[in-house]
Amino acid sequence: MHATDPSPHSGYPPQNVIGRASSAAVALLVANSGVLLIYLAYDLTLYQLVLIYWWECLWIGVFSALKLIVASFIGDPYGNRYVSMSIGSRFLASVILIALSGVLFFSILGGVGIGILIAGEELATTNPADELYKQVELIVGSSLLFMISHGWSFVINFLFFREYRNAQAGQLMWMPFKRCLALYAVIALALMAVFLVPGYATTTGFAVIVIVVKVAWDFLLYLGERKSFS
Fold first, then answer.
1. How far apart are CA 190 and CA 208, in angstroms?
2. What is the reported pTM?
3. CA 230 to CA 9: how far, in whole Å?
4. Predicted local distance difference test score (pLDDT) of residue 80
5. Would the pLDDT of 125 be above 50?
6. For helices 17-41 and 128-153, what crossing angle results, to 10°?
7. What is the C-alpha separation between 171 and 73, in angstroms, rounded?
8. Closest Cα to residue 112, out of 64, 180, 175, 65?
9. Residue 94, helix vs strand vs coil
10. What would the pLDDT profile of 82-91 be if each residue is shown by its tens digit?
11. DSSP conformational letter for 15
12. Does residue 152 sit in helix, strand or coil?
């Protein structure tokens, strides 16, 4: 079988993994480029940049939950050869699973948020809470670029290219943790640099490096997700 032909059981249109990923991957790169332009245009601080990434984790969690709900209706995320579940049973199981994993997800998200606020005392010349309140519209508005990017990936990859056919519940619940842990690692390294080399870590050049590293790491995880659904 030719490399670009779909698997006989995949249900995908005849494109390979990279081809399927390209449209949404461009959206991901555009979103990150947009954040870079906003950072430069509005002279944001590194503290505000990591808050934007914190919001991206929230959008990742929202769309992962949405994928599981959708897969419960038009896919078979709990499928096995021993038990046949009705649509209603799959939906109920998904709601319970989302509620349980959501507690852990938002606990981690909240803990990271508190850590960012505490670290903000070292990153900002003013009170970090005051800085957050003054820039909340810009920070949340910037994060909407990521919401659009992840939403586009949901429509193109999960629905149009029918990733829901191969999606499993455990896989869908683990993915937001994996993507967000990568983001948290970038955030943690950036904040550590502030304490180790404060003179350089607060420069525009360092923030650009943080964005580039984040994009590269996130893009590799994104391609890994597409392959896991193949």
1. 11
2. 0.80
3. 10
4. 65
5. no
6. 160
7. 17
8. 180
9. helix
10. 567 888 888 8
11. -
12. helix
* pLDDT tens string 14-69: 445 555 557 788 888 899 999 989 988 888 877 788 888 889 989 998 999 999 99
For 75, the 3-state DSSP assignment is coil
Q: Are 184 and 75 in contact (CB under 8 A)?
A: no
pLDDT in tens, 182-195: 788 887 887 777 77
Stated as kind and residue range, the H or E segment containing 5 is none
List the structure tokens of 168.
């499993």
Interacting residues of 56 by C-beta distance below 8 A, sequence separation 6+: 143, 146, 150, 183
Asked whether the beta carbons of 207 and 47 are under 8 A apart, the reply is no
The Cα-based distances of 88 to 4, 65, 66, 92, 95 in angstroms read 36, 17, 16, 6, 11
Tell me the C-alpha distance between 164 and 30, whole Å. 25
Q: Which residue in this structure is represented by tokens 């870079």? A: 36
Q: Residue 65 carries which side chain, given as an amino acid letter? A: A
Amino acid letter, residue 103: V
**Torsion over CA: 161, 164, 168, 174 (sign):** positive
Are 153 and 27 in contact by the 8 Å Cβ rule? The answer is yes
Which of 147, 169, 195, 175 lies closest to 69 in space, CA to CA? Answer: 169
To which residue do tokens 């709900």 refer? 69
Q: How many CB atoms lie within 10 A of CB 25?
A: 19
